[in-house]
Each structure stands twice: as structure tokens, then as C-alpha cells.
Design a protein that fits this description.
Chain lengths: 357, 304, 305
């Protein structure tokens, strides 16, 4: 089922949770709503499910206006953040609930529930109470319960938030396979960018009740639309710089910036991702026009990459560089050594009204 | 309106409402944005609650106040401020304040022991504290009056010592302590349980004596709860009738409390006077309720 | 319901003294009077006790009346309590906190004042007196008045029990049920009621104890007519006034037994609630529950009147 959200606005008292949010979700997409807490992502999900009513705006499913349709009749599967399992019912009865309230025949219910228990790999645990299950098992019961009613769409609120790291990764991969199998339009809310990028076909980054960027994981990661997005997607070095004549300058090093062709020089912010910086010993010919001299502060070894903290010679600013560990071994950098840092890629943002992160 | 009809209307409401809740009832409305409740039953539960609160709480109290107001200021004072009424207020207030004070003090000890010390029989003691909540006050009054008469279990020792527990103001205080003790204990107990014991230990390490620790560290922390317990005990005592009527002897100007005076005025069909005294008592209780509310918020804030 | 404390580091002597003081207070104020009811009631032997209970028609009528008035009042309170708790714990609306404080009014107001207010409405000279007379309905000095007075006095007990429990459980399970297609009644019967059943039972038991024992309000509205409007507590008083203390004690012992049974049932229910609470703790982190509205008066456990 395809979903379309148009101009959804929602306030709680004086707090604007959502501000004219519009979004299209094509049939079969697995979409992540990514953002920090308070960004409105959960509110948006609940409004899509009908669990919350919007102050303004419209929601259509397959072109049909469902804005005022009661949650009961939305036919949407919703997995709550803390699962909201019926604590006094067995696992079987939890999954059967949606079928029982529809007064389906007993035999059909039994068949469907057993099928789902198998799907979520909980065969034989139908008689357990939710309190007797582990976190990951509860999460799968919640999923099976939502799927039991054959929903047109699956909505998941922080589906892995309450799980420990190992179970989280396992369940994530399992959910991706499940989505590929059943192909249902699904939306999940997360504050974990790694989770969003690994799992989703489309990522929507939200902040302060607005959508900052919407695109494929590659688009969002490679071409962050706003300072907020680049900042939210992981550690980044931020510097003051200037722009003029289609180029930005970071300590005299030019970076292409065709968005600003004007001759008049203007202040800008330059974002440099640690893995998009190269680090070398000084003395390579031609280096001085592309590189910035710096000194090593710390070297933090990691798995695939080694993080090197440096201080620029000019201005004394601190920055991080991620170096492939093999290369770092070869360089064998020590604190205090002089190095040259070369940006391969940079992102420049002009100060604007949306500048505040 | 009979009481049956007063309460059976909402019952019918439930049956009619059935499973068709808000969505059906509102689906006919134009597509203007509305604040629809997702959870069902706002209308039904609101109707039942509104009806019961209006019929059972607001209406009776309003009628009482309007009746008293119809006396006019002079008439009200004449009815509510007779020498006998003033004496009854004095006995009521005096006995209630004394009982609330005793209950708060004894209750603090019991609450402290229950919250802080583990000993065999703790659960039993904990359950026994609730007895006055479940025991009809008439039974308490009856028992207390027989305990403290000359030949009673306790009276045979106390009366020779000059302590008149029955048919005296002391007796009123005694039975009010019984009635109000659970309030004093139950409000303070959870607060003591939630106290951070590290603070006390820190105070002790810093050289404070046991008493200093109690007065400087513990008491300020539990004071709002103790005061709440006092106010609740006071409210309960001021309104108490069933137990006092047995033990006090109900002698005007000496052991007659305000609720007893209301009843005796009512039995003489002196409605105006009964109403006026009742309104005085009502205002006192509502005042105490407000005080309890404010204190309770402070307790909640202190707990955070 | 309190948690078990770990014993403090104070000296054993001081601890023993404190425990002794607590036992002395509870013993002197509560246990001795309670025990004496049974001793006094059985002072002349079980046969005399039985005669006093079963062979006095007015006493028999009083027992029967108490056993009918209390359940009706408790039934009204159950319906009201569930509805009011649902309203207050699941919806936010203007006037909500004012409404919550109205629930507490019967705790604060003297039962005698409440009884008088009911007389002023339904009595012969009351607001609705002429109407009732025209309809030849009798409220005051009759059964409906007793029910009304008892309902008023016990009004807060069920709702006060349920509000904190429903706030703590939160609305998520009910929302889940709605999104799975359940209607209002289905949500209530299948999800809400099973979750609040112990708290509800707790409230019902307490309300019933209070209803059985109510004196002041019932005294005022009943007219105190032996064999007609005397409930058990009123009967205790009448026998006492007639200098029939042993008979009075016999009736009192029945009431005291009901109170003891109530406390035992209450104790058992509280263990259940505790167990379910721990189960719940295991299910969802406490941060999950929405902001709990500050309750107007002490929580029900504390404020049971």
C-alpha cells in the first residue's frame, strides 16, 4: 500500500511536535524515520497509525483519505516501543487478539497464530506469558501480533530500542529478510543512524518537527542536505571558512562550491568528515597548496580505522582524521609529530535561518 | 428523583453506547479537524462521572450552602454562633487537634519502626494498623466506652488513678486517636521508606549525634508527610460521629461535639440551626482538604 | 504492602525499645479494644451470643438490611469508580484536576453533614420533598436514603484505588488493542479489566467494609427506626442506649468479624498486587509510563477512610 502524508501539523500545548510535514511512501518501501528525541518522528508514526490525531493536514492510503478514520479501522500493524503486550494473556492469545475481536472462526485463528509463531521463530512458546520471555522474544511476539490482522502497512516505534546490542543486530537482519519476504510497506522510527542505513530503503531525517532530508541511504549519507543532517549522521569536524566566486576556503585551501558564484566574500561553515580527510607526513611535492599542516595529538587504534586527533598549526583547531588501520600502521604516527591533512571532500553551508543545529 | 434513577441513567447509557464509540458518532461530521480521542469511552465515562459527582457531591453541598445562605448573615450567625454551638466547636476542635497530635506522634514511631526495622511480626503489626479503617466506628465507640468505665478492662486501673476515660473529653480524644491513627502511619511510612539513608550516614560521619541527625536531616525531609498525616487525622476527627457518640456522654457545653449537636438539632427539627452548624463544619473540612492538597504536592515534589 | 526494610545499624537495645514501643502503641490503641469486643460478646457464653444475634427480630432485620444496602452501594461505586478512573487516567480535559478533588470531598466532609445534605434534598421539607410525596416515593427514613448516604460516604474508595494503578499501567496496551481492531467494550473486558482486577477488588473490599460500618450519615437519613431502617451499626448503638450492652457487643462482634475478614482478604489481594507489580516491572521500564497526575489526596492506601 502506498502512503501519502500532506501538511501534517501537531502541537502539544505550546510545543510544536510536527510542523507541516509531507511525505510519500511508495508501495513496498521499508522507510526509516530518523531523528533525535523530540524531533516528532514518533508523533508522526502515531498519527499515521491513527493513535494520535493531527491538528491539520491529510493522510491518504492508496489515494484514499484516512485522516479521520479511527485507529480501529486503519488496518495498520503497530509495534509499540515497549511492545505493549497484553500482560495477562499468553503469547498465543496475544497474537490471536486481533482475530478474536474480529470474531474469526476458532480453527482459522489457530492456524494463523501457529503460522505466525513459526514465522517469528517462537514455535512451542504459545503458552508462555509475556513476562516469561526475553526482550527479543517479546519484540517478535509484538511483531506477530501486529501481522496477525494482515495489515496493509507495518509501523514500528523504536523496534530495537529496548534490546541489548547483540540481539539488536540479529533482529535487525531478520526484520530486513522478513520485509523482503512479505514485501509490506513498513515504517520504523529510530534515533540510531546505523540502524536506519542498514535496514531501510528510504531514510527520512527529522528535526524539530520538520523533515530535514528524505532520500535513499546513499543520498542522505553522501549528500546531506543540511548542517543538521551531516551533524546527526556521525562525528564531523566543523570549521569557520569563507566563500567567494564559486569556491570555499578552509585555511586557504580551496574547495569547489558552485552554489555561491558571487564575487563578494561571505562567511560559511565547512564540514569535514573524519574519513574524508587524508593524513600524510609533510614533504610530498605540491602538498602545500592542498594540505594543512598540523600536529598529532592522540592516536586511537580501532578495527578497520584508526582515529587520529590533530591540531592545526594555523589557528590551533582540533580535528579528527579516520585513517585505514593498515595505512596508520605504515605511518606509525606518534603524538607531537607534524603531519599534513588533505581534504578529499568537504561540505559547505552558508549561514541561514535553518543554520542552528 | 429517586436515588435509583439518579444512578441507573448512566447504566443505561453504557448499554446503549455499546461498541459504537466515538468514531461512528462523529463520522457524520464534516471533515473539519477535530480532537478525536483514540481510546473509547470518553463520553460514557464522562457522563457517568459527571452525573454521579453532580448528584452526589455538588448538589448536596450546594443545597446545604444555599439553605444556610437563605438565613441571611444575621440569621446565619444567630444559628451558627449560639453559646452551645460555640462550645461544641471548641470541644470538636480541641479534641480533634489533641487526637491528631497524639496520632501523628505515635504514628511516626510506628511508621518508623515498620519502615526501618525488620523483626518477626512486622507484617502482622503492619496489617493491624489497618484495623481502624475496617472496623465500624460504632464498634470502636462501644468498645472504648466499655474499656474505660470503672469496671472496664482498662478503667478498673485508670479510674482509681483519676483518669476518666469514658464520658469525658479525654474519652473523645482516646477514640479519635483510634480512628485517626492509620492515617498518621500510612502517610508517613512510605516517605520514610523512600528516605535516602546515605544522607543520614553522611551526617553521622560528619559528627552529628543521633538526635542532631534526626532533627536536622530526617525531620525536615519527612515533615510535609507528618503534617499531611496530621491534617488528614484532623479532618477525619472533626467529622467523626459514630464512635464519639458512645463515649462522650454528649453533655452540652462539656462533651458535645459539633456533629452530635447537628444531629440533636435535626431531631428537634431545627433545620436552620443544624444547617448553619453543618456549613461551619463543611468549610472547616474543605479548608483542610485544600491544606492536604498543598501538602501532598510538596510531599510528591520532595519525593522526586 | 511495604517493602521489607534492611535493619539499621543502630544498637540492638534501641531497636528492641523501638519495636516494643510500636507494639505497645498498636496493642494499646488497636489490639486491646479489638480483642475486648470478642471477650465481651462471648462473656455469657456462645448460647447467649447466638440468642442475641438470631432471636431478636430487630437485630435480624438490621443484619439483613446491612447485607442488602452495602452491596448495592458498593455496586454503584464500582460502576462509578471504573468510569471515573477511566476518564481521569486516560483522558486530559479542562477541569480534570478539579474533578479529581471532588472525588475526595466525601473523605473530608463529616458523614453527619452529608446525611443532613441528603435530608435537605429528599426530606419532607427538602428540595425534592413535595415532588417525592406526589410520586409517593420515600427516600428519607427508608431504604433508598440508606443506599444514597452509604454511596456518598464510600464514593472515593474504588476510584482512588484505580487511578494510580491505571496511570502506572499506561494506555499503551489499550491503544494496541484499538489498533488491532477492538471496540470499546472489547478493550475494556479483554484488556483493561484483567489488568485492574486486583486493584478493583481491593477497592470493592474496602468500600464494602466502610459501607457495612457507616454510622453517621446513615444515622441521620434513616430515622433510626428499629426493625425498619436500623443497620447493624445503628443496632449496636440502640442496644447500647437500651442498656443491653451484651447484646450490643454481640452485634459488634459480628461487625468486627467482618472487619477482620476484610483485612485478611485485603492482605491477600495486596500480595497479588505486589506480585503483578513485579511482573509489570519486568515487562516495561518505569520510564514508559506517562506522567502521573499528582493525586489530590494521599494515595488510596493512605487515605482509606
Amino acid at each position: 500500500m502506498s502512503l501519502s502524508v500532506r501538511g501534517i501539523t501537531k502541537s502539544f500545548g505550546s510545543f510544536k511536535a510536527l510542523d507541516r510535514v509531507s511525505l510519500d511512501v511508495p508501495e513496498g518501501t521499508l522507510l526509516a524515520l530518523l531523528g533525535p528525541s523530540g524531533s516528532g518522528k514518533t508523533t508522526l508514526l502515531r498519527i499515521i497509525a491513527g493513535l494520535e490525531s493531527a491538528d491539520a493536514g491529510m493522510i491518504t492510503e492508496n489515494g484514499e483519505d484516512v485522516t479521520d478514520l479511527h485507529a480501529r479501522r486503519r488496518g495498520v500493524g503497530f509495534v509499540f516501543q515497549h511492545y505493549a503486550l497484553f500482560r495477562h494473556m499468553s503469547v498465543f492469545e496475544n497474537i490471536a487478539f486481533g482475530l478474536r475481536v474480529r470474531k474469526e472462526p476458532e480453527a482459522a485463528i489457530r492456524e494463523r497464530v501457529n503460522e505466525l509463531l513459526h514465522l517469528v521463530r517462537l514455535d512451542g512458546l504459545g503458552g508462555r506469558k509475556p513476562s516469561q520471555l526475553s526482550g527479543g522474544q517479546r519484540q517478535r511476539v509484538a511483531l506477530a501480533r501486529a501481522l496477525a490482522i494482515r495489515p496493509k502497512m507495518l509501523l514500528l516505534d523504536e523496534p530495537f530500542g529496548a534490546l541489548d546490542a547483540k540481539v539488536r543486530v540479529e533482529l535487525r537482519q531478520w526484520l530486513r529478510r522478513l520485509h523482503d519476504e512479505i514485501g509490506m510497506t513498513s515504517i520504523f522510527v529510530t534515533h540510531d543512524q546505523e540502524e536506519a542505513f542498514e535496514l531501510a530503503d528510504r531514510v527520512v531525517v527529522m528535526n524539530h518537527g520538520k523533515i530535514e532530508q528524505h532520500g535513499s541511504p546513499e543520498e542522505v549519507f553522501d549528500r546531506p542536505a543540511t548542517p543538521f543532517v551531516i551533524d546527526f549522521l556521525g562525528q564531523v569536524n566543523v570549521f569557520h571558512g569563507r566563500v567567494e566566486g564559486g569556491r570555499a576556503f578552509w585555511h586557504g585551501i580551496p574547495i569547489d562550491f558552485p552554489e555561491y558564484p558571487h564575487a563578494q566574500s561571505r562567511e560559511a561553515k565547512v564540514y569535514l568528515r573524519p574519513h574524508e580527510l587524508d593524513i600524510d607526513r609533510p614533504g610530498i611535492p605540491g602538498q602545500e597548496t592542498r594540505s594543512l599542516p598540523a600536529s598529532v595529538l592522540r592516536v586511537t587504534p580501532g578495527g578497520a580505522v584508526t582515529r587520529v586527533a590533530c591540531r592545526t598549526a594555523a589557528g590551533g583547531e582540533e580535528l579528527y582524521v579516520d585513517v585505514p588501520t593498515d595505512k596508520a600502521r605504515g605511518l606509525a604516527l606518534l603524538p607531537g609529530e607534524r603531519v599534513a591533512i588533505t581534504p578529499r571532500k568537504a561540505r559547505v553551508f552558508l549561514p541561514g535561518p535553518e543554520y542552528v543545529i | 428523583m429517586t436515588p435509583e434513577s439518579a444512578i441507573s441513567i448512566p447504566l443505561d447509557g453504557i448499554r446503549l453506547d455499546n461498541e459504537l464509540s466515538l468514531d461512528e458518532s462523529l463520522s457524520g461530521l464534516p471533515a473539519r479537524r477535530r480532537r478525536a480521542e483514540v481510546l473509547p469511552g470518553f463520553g460514557v465515562s464522562g457522563a457517568i462521572t459527571g452525573l454521579v459527582v453532580t448528584a452526589l457531591v455538588i448538589l448536596p453541598l450546594a443545597v446545604l450552602v444555599l439553605r444556610a445562605a437563605s438565613l441571611g448573615p444575621a440569621g446565619f450567625v444567630a444559628a451558627a454562633w449560639t453559646p452551645r454551638a460555640r462550645a461544641a466547636y471548641a470541644v470538636s476542635l480541641g479534641a480533634s487537634v489533641a487526637a491528631a497530635a497524639i496520632s501523628s506522634t505515635l504514628g511516626l514511631v510506628v511508621a518508623w519502626v515498620l519502615a526501618r526495622i525488620n523483626f518477626p511480626g512486622r507484617r502482622l503489626l503492619d496489617s493491624l494498623v489497618d484495623v481502624p479503617l475496617a472496623l465500624p466506628t460504632a464498634v470502636a465507640g462501644l468498645v472504648y466506652s466499655t474499656l474505660y468505665v470503672e469496671k472496664g478492662w482498662l478503667g478498673r486501673y485508670l479510674v482509681p488513678l483519676g483518669f476518666q476515660g469514658a464520658y469525658s473529653r479525654a474519652g473523645i480524644v482516646l477514640v479519635l486517636v483510634f480512628v485517626s491513627l492509620p492515617f498518621a502511619v500510612r502517610v508517613v511510612q512510605p516517605v520514610i521508606e523512600s528516605l535516602d539513608r546515605d544522607t543520614e550516614e553522611a551526617a553521622r560521619i560528619l559528627g552529628a549525634s543521633r538526635l542532631q541527625t534526626f532533627f536536622k536531616v530526617v525531620l525536615p525531609a519527612i515533615l510535609p508527610a507528618v503534617l499531611t498525616g496530621f491534617a488528614l487525622a484532623l479532618a477525619r476527627s472533626l467529622g467523626e460521629y459514630g464512635s464519639v457518640v458512645f463515649i462522650s456522654g454528649n453533655m452540652p457545653f462539656k462533651t458535645e461535639i459539633a456533629p452530635v449537636l447537628i444531629v440533636s438539632r435535626l431531631e428537634e427539627f431545627a433545620y436552620a440551626e443544624a444547617t448553619a452548624i453543618a456549613v461551619v463544619l463543611l468549610l472547616l473540612s474543605i479548608g483542610l482538604l485544600v491544606v492536604v492538597n498543598v501538602l501532598q504536592q510538596r510531599v510528591a515534589r520532595a519525593a522526586q | 504492602m511495604s517493602s521489607t526494610p534492611t535493619t539499621t545499624g543502630s544498637s540492638p537495645l534501641a531497636r528492641a525499645a523501638a519495636i516494643a514501643a510500636a507494639f505497645a502503641i498498636v496493642g494499646g490503641v488497636i489490639v486491646v479494644p479489638l480483642a475486648s469486643v470478642f471477650f465481651e460478646a462471648l462473656a455469657e457464653g456462645p448460647a447467649a451470643w447466638w440468642r442475641a444475634i438470631a432471636h431478636d427480630p430487630d437485630t435480624r432485620h438490621a443484619i439483613w438490611l446491612s447485607l442488602t444496602v452495602a452491596p448495592v452501594a458498593v455496586a454503584f461505586n464500582t460502576v462509578f469508580g471504573v468510569a471515573a478512573a477511566w476518564l481521569v487516567a486516560r483522558f486530559r480535559f479542562p477541569g480534570r484536576s478539579l474533578l479529581i478533588s471532588f472525588f475526595d470531598v466525601p473523605f473530608a466532609v463529616s458523614p453527619v453533614v452529608a446525611g443532613l445534605a441528603i435530608v435537605l434534598i429528599f426530606g419532607r421539607q427538602g428540595l425534592l420533598g413535595p415532588t417525592l410525596e406526589w410520586l409517593s416515593l420515600k427516600v428519607i427514613f427508608s431504604w433508598p436514603g440508606l443506599v444514597l448516604a452509604t454511596t456518598f460516604v464510600t464514593l472515593p474508595l474504588v476510584v482512588r484505588e484505580l487511578i494510580p494503578v491505571m496511570e502506572a499501567i499506561g494506555p499503551e496496551e489499550e491503544l494496541a488493542a484499538v489498533s488491532l481492531g477492538a471496540g470499546g467494550w472489547q478493550v475494556f473486558w479483554r484488556v483493561t479489566l484483567p489488568n485492574i482486577r486486583w486493584a478493583l477488588l481491593h477497592g470493592i473490599v474496602l468500600a464494602n467494609a466502610r459501607a457495612m460500618g457507616e454510622f453517621g450519615a446513615v444515622y441521620v437519613v434513616s430515622g433510626h427506626i428499629a426493625g425498619a431502617t436500623d443497620t447493624m451499626p445503628l443496632r449496636v448503638e440502640k442496644l447500647f442506649q437500651e442498656y443491653r450492652t451484651p447484646a450490643s457487643m454481640a452485634v459488634a462482634s459480628v461487625l468486627a468479624s467482618i472487619a477482620l475478614v476484610t483485612l485478611i482478604v485485603k492482605f491477600v489481594i495486596e500480595r497479588r498486587i505486589e506480585a503483578e507489580f513485579h511482573e509489570r516491572e519486568g515487562l516495561a521500564p518505569p520510564a514508559d509510563s506517562p506522567a502521573v497526575a499528582s493525586l489530590a489526596i494521599a494515595s488510596p492506601k493512605e487515605a482509606v477512610a
